[in-house]
Hints:
alpha/beta, 3 helices
Amino acid sequence: MTTAFRTRAAIAAVVLLSACASKGPANANYDFGPLSAPEPKGRNVCNSIDAIIVADATGPASLDSERMQYRLLYADARQSRPYAYNQWTSTPLQLVTQRMKARIAQDGLKVLSATDSASSVHLLRMEVDDFTQNFETATRSSGHISMRASVFRSHSLVDQKTFTRDVPAPSADAAGGARALADATDALAGDVLAWLNEVPAAPAVTPPPRR
């Protein structure tokens, strides 16, 4: 066997291996999908606020990446693992922020930015503690989201509450996890809206008497 033949054979083997390695599962990108219609319910206009600033959600570094995370609770619940071929279109923190703003606006509240509102307007801060697809078994999983919400007015804390939602996934894969986490976020947004409905509105400002 000549040296030239052995060289050509080695190159052919490398090309074949590269071709096989490139035939992995196709990448898939997920988001929360379109916003569903809200359940009909009346807002307590007398007690609820009518405008709010929604700050960008914050959370651990693992949620500031497009990677989709899951946990095998039946094997090692302390280890978070990323999907290899599936990811979010935006970071979970961005997706939660966008969804919360959309749901709040859908409910009839005015969503303002920090640059065009007075200091007396309510401010909603969200700290996402967990946003994961949890596998209870190899064939059963659920979308889990946990978030601490705080409402401020004039730089003072008005109220704070922790919200948690778990929604079963329709399938034990990334697609099922994306659906479950989207549904869990929508359900949690409904919980936050019900809570905001009980937050007292800013008191009316009484002008000083004329002298």
